[in-house]
Design goal:
Elements: H1 3-11, H2 18-29, H3 35-48, H4 52-63, E1 79-83, H5 91-101, E2 106-110, H6 120-125, H7 136-146, E3 148-152, H8 159-169, H9 177-190, E4 195-202, H10 211-227, E5 231-238, E6 246-248, H11 250-260, H12 266-282, H13 289-301, H14 304-315, E7 334-339, E8 344-349, H15 351-363, E9 377-380, E10 387-388, E11 393-399, H16 402-415, E12 416-419, E13 429-433
Parallel strand pairs: 1-4, 2-3, 4-5
Antiparallel strand pairs: 5-13, 6-9, 7-11, 8-10, 8-12, 9-11
Bound molecules: uracil.
Length: 434
């Protein structure tokens, strides 16, 4: 096979065969095909697109480029959950113990944050003592014993995606539905769960800005997941405004705990029971998603979800006392309040700007190697349609780095849009795609 011909074929709008796709994925992973040829091919794919069969073949080739996790020894239907990334999105930390408390085994690998979006692994590491690297036997044993484990993604899961994603990032070829689908689904399918619940975000703080784009992405991922033999359901949800009030690492864990105590912000509480409901349904514990949602609410109300969270922290070496004593988290050296210079209702909060502010305050990385300040972040006192008096605090920024905190303060002041009247709120859940 000849790489030049494969590039020309896609450039001219033809369909690539599974063999041709396997050839370039394998060749690139083994460093036999250079970056410049894959860059050209990615741009041709970006412009000409890929059909369903090509996307499925690309997903399978990337999935088979590394290790796959075998969870078959763990009884029950294992359910994974993935969000395409949002600001203040701490739902995994909430829905995993809820689903586990309802009898759905959770054996999950999660990622770190990069750029302006956070990652579950960083957030969990803000719990004193919490370990996100476990030996495979320990991971499996924990799921068998207490029904839940969440660890960092092992290095050799879909290595082809790692290389291709890094190249897409610097060749303006990230925002293509087939490339995003194959990238996400190759990792999900390699992680071994039997069913997958996807939270596909749309809006200013997401890859897909419009509901239409997000629905197409969700539809494609659901098709590919089901075609690969895993039951897959997606919720398309709003990401114009940050989720909840907390953005950062330890501050998001605290908000997740509050939600598990039944005292979380409305948006994050609602989204969590819907996603947990879908997981409970996919896990075969409920006959419908609605029944699953009811079970999720009951697990919160009865305290079972919170107790499961405590067991999960203890099993992974963390201090469960943080659930009742938030002073046990590392405390930031600097705290700065942000006030407004006029009265009115909050009309919108630019989610991406809040994500960037959290990153600047020290809560996120610009390069993979950066260390982050787990105490850094933002708390939004005021959200959409809440009234603010002139001079009142709308948000607080915290962290250890004076310069970073100052930059964040400036951005947050500009991220708030005010109005004299309340605005029409967009629904949080746009649609569910099966
Ligand atoms: N997340 C991924 O893992 N891959 C993409 O292509 C986009 C988001």
């Amino acid at each position: 096979m000849n790489m030049n011909e494969i590039i020309a074929k896609k450039r001219d709008g033809d369909i690539l065969s599974p063999e041709e796709i396997e050839y370039f994925v394998k060749g690139y992973t083994n460093e036999e095909i250079p970056d410049y040829q894959i860059s050209a091919l990615l741009m041709a794919i970006f412009i000409q697109g890929m059909n369903h069969d090509e996307t499925l073949a690309l997903t399978k080739s990337m999935l088979n480029s590394g290790d796959t996790v075998d969870l078959s020894e763990i009884p029950g239907i294992k359910v994974d959950k993935h969000s395409t990334g949002g600001i203040g999105d701490k739902t995994t930390i909430i829905v995993a113990p809820i689903a586990a408390a309802c009898g759905v085994p959770i054996a999950k690998m999660s990622g770190r944050g990069l750029g302006f979006t956070g990652g579950t692994v960083d957030k969990l590491e803000s719990i004193p003592g919490f370990q996100t690297i476990l030996k495979s036997e320990q991971f499996m044993e924990q799921v068998r014993k207490i029904g839940i484990s969440v660890i960092g993604q092992s290095a050799n899961i879909a290595p082809a995606d790692k290389k291709i994603y890094a190249l897409r990032d610097v060749t303006a070829t990230v925002e293509n539905l087939s490339l995003i689908t194959s990238s996400i689904m190759s990792k999900k399918l390699a992680s071994g769960s039997d069913a997958i619940v996807l939270d596909v975000k749309c809006g200013r703080g997401a890859f897909a800005e419009t509901e239409e784009q997000a629905s197409m992405l969700a539809g494609m991922m659901v098709e590919i997941g089901n075609a690969a033999g895993k039951r897959t359901i997606a919720a398309v949800t709003d990401m114009n405004n940050p989720l909840g009030r907390a953005v950062g690492n330890s501050v998001e864990i605290i908000e997740a705990i509050e939600t598990l105590k039944g005292q979380g912000p409305e948006d994050i509480s609602e989204l969590s029971v819907i996603l947990a409901g879908l997981m409970i349904f996919c896990g075969g514990v409920a006959a419908t998603a609605e029944e699953g949602k009811g079970l999720a609410k009951e697990a919160i109300k009865s305290g079972r979800a919170l107790r499961k969270f405590g067991e999960f922290i203890t099993a992974q070496g963390g201090n469960p006392e943080i659930i009742y004593d938030y002073s046990l988290f590392k405390q930031p050296k600097i705290k700065r309040l942000i006030t407004t210079d006029r009265s009115g209702y909050v009309a919108s909060i630019d989610a991406k700007a809040i994500g960037i502010s959290s990153q600047l305050a020290g809560g996120g990385r610009t390069k993979k190697e950066d260390t982050i300040d787990l105490s850094a972040g933002i708390y939004l006192f005021k959200k959409i349609n809440e009234y603010v008096e002139k001079g009142e605090a709308i948000a607080e920024v915290f962290g250890d780095n004076e310069q970073g905190v100052q930059s964040a303060v400036k951005i947050i002041s500009e991220a708030y849009e005010m109005s004299f009247e309340k605005v029409q709120e967009k629904p949080l859940i746009k649609k569910i795609i099966e």
